[in-house]
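A sample follows:
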Amino acid sequence: MKTKILLIDDDVDLIEMNRAFLEQHDFDVLTAFNGTEGLETARKDRPDLIVLDVMMTEVGEGFEVARQ
C-alpha cells in the first residue's frame, strides 16, 4: 500500500508542483486548499503525513489546523 500524504496550502502552484514530484516517487497525494478542507480530508482519509502551510490567507489558520 502506498504512503498517503496530504498537502494543505492556499498556493495552488505549490501544491501542484509538490503533487507531481511526490506522485513520481510513488506516493498517494491528497490536497486541500484551506484549513477547513484540510481538516476534513485528514479526518476522512487518515494520511500518513501532512505537509501544512502555517502562513495561509487567514491569520492563524495554519496554526489552528496544526493545533487540531
User: Anything to note?
Assistant: The mean pLDDT is 94.
